[in-house]
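Lecture 7 notes: from sequence to structure.
We start with the chain below.
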Amino acid sequence: MKKWLGYIFVLIAALGLPSSLVAQTQGSSTPELLLVYWSAMDCPYCKHWESEASGMESSLKNSEEFKKLTYRVVKNKSLTDPYVEEDFPPDIRWIKERIDRGEEKPLGKPGWGFYVDRVRIAKFYGTKKWYEKNLPEIKRLVAKYSGGH
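Predicted structure tokens for the same chain:
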């Protein structure tokens, strides 16, 4: 009986069944794309970015790329206040934990952090070159990491 079990395990390993199943699972998974917007209620540049008049926020939210990512806002009351846990949506409080451990720094306001599977790979700051630099780069990153090269 033990001999037959040994043959079965050798056959399974030779066929590569477990590794092929793992490869199929890994190949079909899409990385989690997260864009975090850093803001403050009294930030004039943040208010400008968010305003309908500037159209900047809507240019992001109305893009095809926006549908492929998770978007979260971290906003506190004042530019001079540090961020506290309550400023973070519950599903991204892991970012606050990283900040507390010194592994990450909060971004300037307005600022955007782009994460792939919880790894920050890019950060953007300010509104001056939103249409020329920030928005095109965010779109490029979404296309790159969502498989839509």
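Points to note: Confidence is low (pLDDT under 50) at residues 2-26. The CA atoms of residues 85 and 93 lie 7 Å apart.
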